[in-house]
Amino acid sequence: AVDPRNVPEPELPGGFRCVSLSELTPEDVYDVMCETALDEPTPVPNDSIAFSEFVREWHDPVFDVESSTAVVEGGKVVAFAFMKSAGARGQHGFTGCARAYRGRGLATAAKRAALRAAAAQGITRVTTSNAEENAAMRAINRRLGFEPVGEHVIMSRDL
Questions:
Q1: Which long-range contacts (CB under 8 A, 24 or more apart) does 34-39 make?
Q2: What is the pLDDT of residues 77-131, one digit of tens each?
Q3: Of 25, 50, 8, 28, which Cα lies nearest the Cα of 98?
Q4: Rounded distance between C-alpha atoms, residue 95 and residue 83, angstroms
Q5: Sign of the alpha-carbon dihedral angle for 73, 74, 78, 83
Q6: What is the rounded radius of gyration, in angstroms, for the C-alpha atoms of the chain?
Q7: What is the pLDDT of residue 83?
Q8: How many Å apart are CA 43 and CA 28, to the nearest integer?
Q9: Taking the model in full, what pTM does it have?
Q10: β-sheet bridge partners, residue 96
């Protein structure tokens, strides 16, 4: 968990900017979300996310399109950070960056912008969870000030 009021402003290389997802459509974000989902460590591969399912989640009342953020170059979404919120608490969801744009701090910038936007809406605590093997995102979260608050264990079995 982290207090988003303590997260620094995003830093972006020239030619990139952060925008709220409220300025975009699901179509703008879907392709980069699908690409990055392929690299997320999960027990079940994220290789067939239906557009209709993504749109349903986009319109879920707790999905915070105001705080959720995309990094764009020109008009193309290249990184994103999703937020959910309820009252003074938020949950940081999926963050990703297109493979061709990795290593430039764009996912970190998207996450910083989303957390700062959540803080501007009065959210004072944001939680997140990461797979143990997702070293890159765990490092980003440590740099942003996330502190461990417990373990989230996912168990699965073949039926």
A1: 35/96, 35/98, 35/99, 36/94, 36/96, 36/97, 36/98, 36/99, 37/94, 37/96, 39/96, 39/99
A2: 999 999 999 888 899 889 999 999 999 999 999 999 999 999 999 999 998 887 7
A3: 28
A4: 9
A5: positive
A6: 15
A7: 97
A8: 27
A9: 0.89
A10: 80
